[in-house]
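Model: You mentioned two targets. I'll fold them one after the other.
Researcher: Yes, keep them separate.
Model: Target one:
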Amino acid sequence: MRLFLNPTPIKFIRSLFSSPRSKSPPLRPIRAGSSPSTAIAMATITKSTSLGAVAEEGIARRFWIKFRKESTLALYTPFVVCLASGDLRLDSFRQYVAQDFHFLKTFAQAQPQWRPVSFGLGEGLTIAQESWNRSSSPRLSRQLLSTRLCSCRLSRCTVFISSHFSKYELAEECADDDDAKAAISQLRKAVIEELKMHDSFVQEWGSDMVKDCRLNSATVKYTDFLLATASGKVEGVKGPGKLATPFEKTKLAAYTLGAMTPCMKLYAFIGSELQALLDSNKSSRHLYQKWVDNYACESFQASALQTEDLLDKLSVSLTGEELDIIEKLYHQAMKLEIEFFCAQPLNQQTVVPLLTEHKPADNRCLIFSDFDLTCTVVDSSAILAEIAIVTAPKSDQSQAENQIVRMSSADLRNTWGVLSRQYTEEHEQCIERILLPDKAERFYYEGLHKALEQLSVFEKGANSRVIESGVLKGLNLEDIKRAGERLILQDGCTDFFQSIIKNANLNSNIHVLSYCWCGDLIRSAFSSGGLNVLNVHANEFVYDNSVSTGEIVRKVESPIDKVQAFRDILTNHRSEKKDFTVYIGDSVGDLLCLLEADVGIVLGSSSSLRRVGSHFGVSFIPLFPGLVKKQKECVEGSSSSWKGLSGILYTVSSWAEIHAFILGIERFMRQSSRNGGLSTLSYYMSKLSGTLVLSQVIAVRNFVEWPFRGNMLYVDVVALVLMEISSCRPFLDLSTLHK
């Protein structure tokens, strides 16, 4: 149990619906092991600070943050993991170079106003350099030139020269400011340097495959998209030759840059991530060091930033609808780039996706997950507390004789506050007591187990105090189910579970292990996503005519209870097939399960989990570097090297990473497409009842301050949930919510 109650219910419940994908971290309850000052700092985001931060960022930066999930996913493609490890087979790299070459060649063939120049690499560099030198005042429009320059990455070795520069009056009009010309000049230099290095690549590794290589569908799809955008075939935009005003020309330039910027930015990101890995391990020579150096170098990073700056400048005068178009183009380009990586053929054993090695005929995969703050945005104890307070009678309100006697809302609020503070203080003291005098030099599971036995005694005592206090009396089962159905889970959690369940070939089962007091809340939360088949192992409320008595059927209260449930599941489902286990958790209560599973994944950054684990020799490794290391150790034809009790746990920041690692990027992309691009908010908004009075919703949301203009919708969701919970309760007084 992680008990927390915010003294202002409506302001707390709004954090339940804060978007886990927003660039600012969602407001979260004080976690066990977190200091009160830290929690206060997280919660006190002022309006002026937030708006100021947003105002200072250009759209390129905002789009990159918004779609950071996609950029992270690119790292988990088998091609990039193998490339990062240095064991990517040379034939695969040559195939990649060939596809990249044809990408730009096809682009040129589809544009009649541009003539592809055939030449050897050395000759081509000379022609390109001379062309730039001759055109001291080039009449290239910003959108056309930027499109081609941004496209000319390392392995795209075709240079295109306009056959008739003087024909493009559009170019002269759009490139009439010094800043743009300076930026274009820098991009030219970057392209020349990239071409020089690509020439050395071809000399070192050969390029015969370029001639015989056939385009794959991902390359064609990406090329067609860029061609259509640069040609003005964007919804609401006139085509080339019909651009009547300089503003329309600039708008088309912005659209084109919106489609090209992710390409530059993503390669810069991958280059820097791979370079960081190489810097941490300089003991061995990396086969593709030159490739990494190119994209990690200061000049390429600067070119990527310069491209973003151009996009920002071109977008300054655009309307909100036009910026939305750029955002869609940006997102589509990001997804197409990931598909391009996914399409690269690999003829070697890889560690991703994890279930690639999983043979359903011989193995059974068991996925285990915690619930509170692993699947959810807030802890379930806080949700139950808020329901109890909101639905409790006021102090001056009489109660029916046949009803379970309940505390008033004011008394409930005070009691929850006392319990919350006591739990937080005593939990921190317990953590201090269980640590050894000296930190373990190596992984010490037995010592960790004994320490968590002491923590288990504390957790059970805390639950006893909650039951004895009577704060859980009188909760209606239907209210709990409604709250669960509208509970927003962490972004990507539902998609991951759905992908496993819908694929019968995986032979996988999902088990949720939780300290949650009420299993009905968990089941209803997952049932709204069509996940009724999940196996839930949690505590249960005792009901009398669908109203909670305040008692709990205790099943999973502590770290020891969790790991015992984990072991029992494996024992009870023992068969001839070999079990392969994955556990996903976020707190110190998950430590034993995380370590006993074949793969333990830590979601988030719990300070108490890391502190206790590190003290007993547990290593916490970011998942991507861990996979690269595993790939280096991968021996063709060998069995899986994932084993429990290794003392190593892998850390991630999102369910998207988990999905990409276990099931693969392609499965993740297909799942996202099936969802039609709906955000988590849109998904839950679509399920809310439309029968409530609008004035009631407004009355609730007026009590909530929210620093971001676009996030007021979350407050609407909060209001609707509260109204639906209390729709049959005439004693609910909205004015009490402000208090």
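Model: Target two:
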Amino acid sequence: MASQTPPNKKNRDEGEDSTGKAKRGHLCFDAAFETGNLGRVDLVGEFEYDLFLRPDTCNPRYRFWFNFTVDNVKQDQRVIFNIVNINKSRNLFKDGMTPLVKSTSRPKWQRLLRCEVFYYKSPVHQNHYVLSFAFGFDKEDEVYQFALTFPYSYSKMQAYLNALELKFPETFERSSLGMSIQNRKLELVTFDEVKKPDKVDQKNVIHMVVILARIHPGESPSSYVVQGLIEFLAAATQPIAKALREHVVFKIVPMLNPDGVFLGNNRCNVVGHDLNRSWNRLSQYTHPTLSAVMKMLKEYDNSSCYQVDFVIDIHAHSSLTGTFIYGSTYDNVYRYERHLVFPKLFATKCEDFCQEHMMFNADDRKSGTARRNFVEALSDNVNTYTLEVSMCGYYLNGTNILTQYTEDGYMRIGRNLARTFLEYYRFTNILPIPPMEELRPRKGRPRTHRPRARSKTRSEVRVRPKTTRAYAPISYTDLSICYDSATSDEGSPVRYHMYHGHAGAYGGLRMRPHAHQDQFSLSNIQAARFSNLDFTSDYRLKVPKLKTPATAGDQKMPPIEMLTVPPKPHLTIIDFNQLTRGGLEEATAAGGRTIDREKEKIRRHTFKSSSRKA
């Protein structure tokens, strides 16, 4: 499909060469392939295109899935694509999901950069939500393909099952439940290695698990989840898979709506019916695949040999992140508690499980879904769930980091689903619990890791000599650290050792000075005389020189009044909210005048005391 241009001769001549082919740079769009979806393209600018999605066959309501190719591009050509008729306004494009792209030489799907994708209301398009993304074509001879999420076609499923049937013929059983309206096979995959008992009673019934997927064609991630589950169960040497196959029968329907998948629909089959709203009004003519599945379920549910434990319908969610489960509510409390066991076990196996999105209800509007209809159609032993996986990604636990899903990420969910079945059947004593030797982790590294080379000569470990411990001095904020006079040995601060005694000026603690101190040490002065002074400032006590030097025998402690005591620090509070021009200088000058007044008071007090003493 070539891009549409105004129907005049000038544009036709400019857009075509002599052979009638479009000139290089005039993009050619194509969706005429399996799972393809694109209805119309309008060229609205030199480098801008409006894309219209084709609605589901016989149902114009659903328009969300897209999958198309673009070729005939120029190198380094940049364009803007606007998908203008998406019917679902609430979707994951608001949360950071971006379309996928791949090319001929780069067959691996990659997501577009988030900075180049925009989802917004457009006044040009009647205030409808528009998905716009910019893209630059870097190679001319490439065919580029764009899709909503990872496509999974009916032909790909057939090729995968053919290869698996050849690889695991002993563990893998493939059959057909019926045909679709357009005569496509409804595939059924069975894993059954359970030993059939000679006498069947209630204690030795055969347990069964039924998995359904891809009832909505646009939810292709569900097919990758089923592929991961099938690969895990088919592995002949996998001990978990072997234990499950020997005790439980698995029935897997990988694609319930093959016609819708082939046509590239979003939710409906070829006649425009949403199959996940049609379980309560089945018709052999309009819903042949659902009728075949319901017939199989009722046969096994009414059988005395089999007990259907689970029916899990796998979907992909377009507006929520993470992996979560929808269940049902029951009036019977014991049945409801048993119904909650499997989701709790599954949450412990998946790091991407989102409990906030998990829901259990009995909504009448959902009566046509498999989850709600099987509650009434099947026996009370059957637990029916809807397993939802996001089309975009999941948030890491406790963070706002969005991790995008890949094909392997979806298949990992299928493998975790198989591990959850193992835990459940061990919990219900259907599977034997292995001995403790098998449960304990193996010591050392696996054989795949090479051990690091170690030196043959090992150095001996020397024993640490026993030494006496000297405790570091402890300083408390309520105790002042005072310094010696200028005649001390090294000018170091006097260190005090604490010991308990009677209550004194320091709250029950007395101080014992260090051994080497001279006669001018402050520890020789009574603490009561200095209880009203503050020594927290970084000053040294200055001792004035005497006019007549005293002899060694006449050395006495100078009077306390002669010691110059540093002033108490004063804090001037400045309110910056009330400062005006020049106010900061006035406030600073006021603080300086306060300190000068305090120094003058101390100087006068010292002078009066000296005069009185004389």
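Researcher: Noted. Anything on target two?
Model: Confidence is low (pLDDT under 50) at residues 5-13, 474-548, 550-555, 560-564.
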